[in-house]
Amino acid sequence: MKYVRFACMSCYYLCDRVECEPMLQADSKVQELLRLARYHHMLPNRQAELDLNSTPRCGMSYVRGYLIVANPYSEDKTRKFNSVELLLPSVAGGVAGGDGYCHLQHQQPPQYHLVRIAKLPLSLYMPGVVVTGSNQLLLAGGTQKKISVRGSVTCDGVSNQLHSAQTDVSNSWTWQSLARMALPRTQFLFVLVDQAVYAVGGFTGQEVTDQVEKFCLQSLVWRSVAPLPQPLRCATGHAYRGRLYTFGGENARGEIVNVCYR
Length: 262
Hints:
mainly beta; 32% strand; 262 residues; Neuraminidase; 13% helix
């Protein structure tokens, strides 16, 4: 049963047909898998925490890539800071998918190419980006950039804007403006924790801040929550079982710290 992809099943089929099967009810290990599968459907923003195989089978056509947002190192000057790109593996001159993807896993090293799939509403450097379990991409803050016709880049302040878009591989993303943060932020930690996203610390354009804001995905409202013990920027973090953890960062004195906060 460990090879059955319960997470890929319809949640209705899982509850109506699979869970009530007497043979499965007698097996404690299968019951644990079914419990995780229920959580997979009930708590979409925690799917990354669940040890479930949700990868399509090799015979199914699919593509696994890496989403790159506001790439400052793009060789194309017109795409710097303002694009959403997908880094895809290439197989025999095409895009990997289905059996081709399985074959790619045995090649050393694989070849990749970039596909531009959307344009950002602003040209930004180091914005905060998260993707929810319902495939909604949230883009917040960042240093605004202006790019001239000749390719020169200048800074235009720090943004406090929040935008959202539904992620699909097309060139027709529709960006929606949501409520603004109380503070402009760049180089900050932006983390999804269940039904909310947190903007933690960062640089406001004038100072490194310790302020933390919480955006509720249901009410679409920002509110301030408990600040960090010290101002930090460029920290990293992770959400686990409803808790937010921050690691490292640079304090207001320019020192790299090795602390962890929860």
